[in-house]
Design goal:
Length: 264
């Protein structure tokens, strides 16, 4: 795993799996070259105030897992997607420290697509501002946000899908699910759709609340114990992050970390 501690631009020139640890830097850029297909595991440490830019050239693809292990972090992230490029990115946020994350995805050329997953469990303050901006026609975005709010949590997610004039036949979808485990917490999901074109598809769906008693009853009626049923329902909010990378070893590690974080 390569450790990055100073301002740098990383050029991904060939297919493969890459791992980086980032700490004590202010600026970091990734540039994925044309026709390159890469996976990146990015681990963030220390106290970060990070400006990150990522460019995907035409017909490239990038699957990136960003694991935030910082003491505290403030991140401003910008992504530029060119013709027929594909980005799948997951933000894994299971620590108890503050996070302020702003991420903007610009689908700048025909055929570009992005799939964003945020996963968090917290008793601290975490603020997310995620925006997908469709500039060109035939572009696609999907945002899936999952949060488990424990006692003292202060969680806010603003998810915005923007389809500009001329970005016809584009699709922008978003879902946010928040599971509240305590009365003493504050959680908020703000879905936004800004549509300036007619021939498009756009949707948003939000859910927030305690564990569903009917779901628990259904699982228990199938012979599953109360503890196992709660574990299954809780894990369902966090496991989507394991779909970001194709690396089975990393995904198995994530499941172990999630179970440990949940005390299961």
């Amino acid at each position: 795993m390569e450790k990055i501690t100073e301002k740098t631009t990383i050029e991904i020139q060939k297919d493969g799996y890459y791992e980086y640890t980032v700490e004590t830097i202010e600026t970091l850029s990734f540039h994925v070259l044309k026709n390159v297909h890469a996976e990146i595991k990015l681990i963030l440490k220390g106290s970060l105030e990070l400006q990150q830019d990522i460019l995907l050239e035409p017909s490239s693809s990038l699957h990136m897992l960003s694991m935030n292990e910082c003491k505290d972090s403030k991140m401003n992230l910008t992504y530029h997607l060119k013709k027929d490029s594909e980005l799948k990115i997951g933000y894994y946020e299971l620590n108890e420290n503050t996070c302020d994350l702003k991420a903007k995805f610009y689908l700048e050329e025909n055929g570009a697509s992005v799939d964003v997953v945020t996963t968090s469990i917290t008793s601290a303050k975490k603020i997310y501002d995620i925006g997908c901006i469709h500039i060109a026609a035939n572009t696609n975005s999907n945002m899936s946000n999952y949060e488990i709010s424990k006692q003292h949590a202060n969680y806010k997610i603003t998810a915005c899908g923007t389809i500009k004039k001329g970005a016809y036949q584009s699709k922008s979808h978003q879902t946010s699910r928040i599971l509240t485990l305590h009365e003493d917490q504050r959680s908020e999901a703000i879905p936004v759709l800004l549509i300036d074109e007619n021939d498009v598809e756009a949707s948003h769906a939000n859910s927030m609340g305690k564990m569903n008693a009917e779901d628990l009853y259904y699982l228990q009626s199938r012979g599953i114990s109360d503890e196992q049923a709660k574990e299954l329902l809780t894990m369902s909010y966090l496991l989507p992050i394991t779909d970001v990378l194709d690396n089975e070893e990393v995904n198995a590690e994530l499941v172990t970390m999630i179970r440990s974080r949940m005390g299961l």
